[in-house]
Structure formats: C-alpha cells, structure tokens
Amino acid sequence: MFDLTHRRRRKELVESLFNPELVKEFVGGDLLNELGMSIRADIKENDSEYIVEAELPGVTKEEIVVEFKEDVLTISGQKQKEIDEEKENYVRRERKLGKVSRSFYVQNIHSDGITADYKDGVLKIILPKMQESTSDSHRIEIK
After folding, report:
1. Run of H or E residues at 107
2. CA–CA distance, 24 with 31 (Å, rounded to integer)
3. d(Cα 123, Cα 113) in Å, to the nearest integer?
C-alpha cells in the first residue's frame, strides 16, 4: 500500500495566516519559487517495486537527503542563494535560504534494497517490495 503524507508547504501556511500580498511585499517575493524549491513527484508501481521520480531543479546531489524510517520515505532538499553586488557608492549582499521536504508512507518495502539516483534535476528512487513487513531505518546513498 502506498499513501501520500500531505504536509502543507511553508508558503501555504504563511498565506493562510497572513495576507499573501502583504507577505510578498514584506519578504520580497516567494523564496521557495525564487530558489526553485518545490518537490513534485511521480509514483509508479510494478509487481516488484515502487518507483518515485521527484523533481528537485537547481539542487545538487549533496544538498539532498533521502531517508527511510518506520515505513516513511522522506526526501529533503536545502538550497542557499547568495547575491554579492558591488557598484559605485554602495555594496549589496543578500542571502536566502530555502528548505523543502516531502514524505511518503510506504508499507512492505525491503529497505536494504532501496536505491536512489540523481540526474538532470530528477531524483529517482527504487523501493523494492517484499512479502513480510519489517521496520528498518537507514540513510540512502544517492548515486
């Protein structure tokens, strides 16, 4: 069985609490969109495995963490953007940090067989199915 664990993104939470136009004006736009930080995922299934293809554009492999713990697959990405600009009579330096995470509830997965590969902004995770349910926890290496 494969269920999605829905979590509200920070932007949606902030907009539900405050006026969206006021927030954009105050923080200077949508940080997650400026950094390209959102996770969209396609999930496929065949007889032996689930295949998750998650989009993480502009993020390097080193900025991604994939974990499987207690039947929950979690994909996290963090991106930092720095702008250094020097012109006549002023110096400007801005820093923006964005972090995003997405979790999926997955049962009956052989956790030792999980593999992940990252290429061209797409993270592909293979979750092999197994017959009996065991709970295991470990970090998955991205190739």
Report:
1. none
2. 9
3. 16
pLDDT at 13: 59
26 pLDDT exceeds 70?
no
Name the token pair of 42: 């396609």
Structure tokens that stand for 116 in this block = 């992940």
Contact 65, 139 (CB under 8 A): yes
pLDDT digits (tens, 9 = 90+) for 58-71: 788 998 999 999 99
Neighbours of 79 (CB within 10 A): 21
* CATH placement of domain 2-140: 2.60.40.790
Buried b (16+ CB within 10 A) or exposed e, 80-107: eeeeeeeeeeeeeeeebebebebbbebe
| Higher per-residue confidence, 13 vs 114 | 114
> Are 57 and 77 in contact, with CB atoms under 8 Å apart?
no
Instruction: Over range 72-92, report the average pLDDT.
Output: 80
Report CA torsion sign: 29, 79, 98, 116: positive
**Hey, where are the domains in the chain?**
2-140
The owner of tokens 């929950």 is 72
> What are the Cα distances from residue 140, in Å, to 11, 35, 93?
28, 25, 36
